[in-house]
Amino acid sequence: MGSPGGSTAGASRTVKPPFSPPPHWQYLNVLVVEDHSAYRLLLGWLLQKLGLGHALVTDGFMGLDAFTSRPFDLVISDCRMPFMDGYSMTRAIRQHEREQGLKRVPIIALTANLQNDSPQRCRKAGMDAWLLKPLTLEQLHAVLVRWLPGGEGRYVEPYAAAAGASWPTRATLVTTFGSDMVVDQLLETLLMEAWEDQRVLRHARVTLNAPLTAERLHRLVGSLVFLGGTGLESSAVSLIEQVQAEGVATHKAQLEVFEARLCAYLEYLSEL
């Protein structure tokens, strides 16, 4: 179960998002289930800053009712609430999804105490990740990027801006491989193969084909490390392990984010 590491004190109301939210986020909706009024207000404010639609409710019963009444793309729930806690609500939501044949919506635990609300307990209930109070915009952003549905490659600019500094340049490639002609040949071959692998990977994700997904991720690792570390290869290796252990559906959102980042990198290489 993923999470951003640790926590920092309080979310400053002067902090601005470190990027322009992906355009498709304006069409997504997040359900917040939290009995503490101050945290409901804070989460509502942060989600508004990030351009996301949202609904705020006060306990698990209301959360379950909201979830079964309209579609949501992600749920953030406090673990401990009166009437129905986050664990019970999550189990009820997972049962509802199974009975209705619905897609699995990510549920993020919100807790102030990882000793009582351990990641293992959250995972057992059916939650996917956790956020630690006191909550910051950076924490929330990191979880949303990982778990919200992707935009099928439509939001690659934030990743390009964040990772571009570590990507190879034309000059470094010429220095490494000796000449412009060799670089052109290598890039042409690498991009042709990588774009095909990306196309097959997307098909494998959509069809929930775990063996094919893992196989194409493995091929892409070879392409990514060929020109030097980008950070994408470590993400691919992690996804291979997760897909092989738990299947594609559980990690579909992570795969969408990886594909968006991969497309940004390949587009960058095509301009070199």
From TrEMBL:
Keyword Phosphoprotein: yes
SUPFAM superfamilies per record: CheY-like (SSF52172), Histidine-containing phosphotransfer domain, HPT domain (SSF47226)
Domain of life where this protein originates: Bacteria
SMART domains per UniProt: REC
Annotated Response regulatory domain residues: 29-148
Regions annotated as coiled coil: none
Signal peptide: none
Pfam families: Response_reg
PTM annotation (4-aspartylphosphate): residues: D78
HPt domain mapped to chain residues: 179-272
Modified residues (Phosphohistidine): H218
Keyword annotations: Phosphoprotein, Two-component regulatory system
UniProt cross-references to PANTHER family, sorted A to Z: HISTIDINE KINASE, HYBRID SIGNAL TRANSDUCTION HISTIDINE KINASE J
Name of the protein in question: Response regulator
Organism: Pseudomonas salmasensis
Lineage, broadest ranks: Bacteria, Pseudomonadati, Pseudomonadota, Gammaproteobacteria, Pseudomonadales
